[in-house]
Amino acid sequence: MTAITPPEVETPELIKAKITSETARINWLELQKFYAAGSVVAVDLSLDLVDVAYAFSQDHSQQVQSWLTQGQVKRVEEAQAKQWFDAEQELWAVVIAPWVLVQDKPTASQLN
C-alpha cells in the first residue's frame, strides 16, 4: 500500500519563488499593447518587485492601496511611457493578471 501525498500547499515562500521565476527583463516596446490597455503598473525602486507582485496575487488590498496612495505603485503615465519608448528601455516585468508590473531597475552591468 502506498501513502497518499497531500496536495502541495502554496506557502508564501513558494508563491514568491514562482513569481521570481516568472520575472524577466523585457523591452518597453514589447509592452505597448498592454500599456494601451491600461494594464501596466510601475513599481517604485524603493519596493521589491516580487513583494509587490505577491501582494497583488494574494489580493492584499490594504497594502496595495497604501502603495497607490503613496505613489509607490501606479499606472504608467504618458510622459514615462514616452521616455521608455524613446530610450527603448528594458524593464523588469512580471504578469499578475490582469496587470503587468514593471520596474526600471538597472542590471548589475549598468551599475558598473
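Next protein, fold it too.
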Amino acid sequence: MGRTIRRTAAFTALWKAVTASHRGGPGLADRVFSVPRLAWASLRGQYDGSGRFLLMALATLYVVSPIDLVPEIVMGPLGLIDDGLVIAWIAGAFLSETDRFLQWERVFPKGRRRERPTNPRPGDFIDGQVVD
C-alpha cells in the first residue's frame, strides 16, 4: 500500500510539473532549458546546487551505462527495479532542483547574482560599527 501511494505521489508530481505552465508556474520546457544555466551557475560558485546536480548526472550515467546490466543479468526482470528506483529519484531531484533554481534566478536576477560567502580567516577584520 505504501509503495502505491509513493508511486502515485511521484506520478502526480510529474504531472503537476508537466502542466505547471498552465497554472503560471515553470513548465517542463522551462525546467529543461534551465539545466545549462543551473550547471554554469553551480560551476561558477554562484548557486549551491552543484552536489545534487553531480548526483543526478552520476545517476543518469549509471542508468545508461553497461554496469547497469549486471542486476538484469543476475536477477532477470527483477533487476529492472533498480532502474525504476534510480529513474524515479532522478525525476524527483530534477523537479525539485530546477524549481529551486528557477526561484533562485527570480530572487537574484542576472548581473546581480549572489556570490558564495567567504569565511573570514582569523585575524581578518570586517569594517563596521559595534552597536550596544
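About the second fold: The mean pLDDT is 77.
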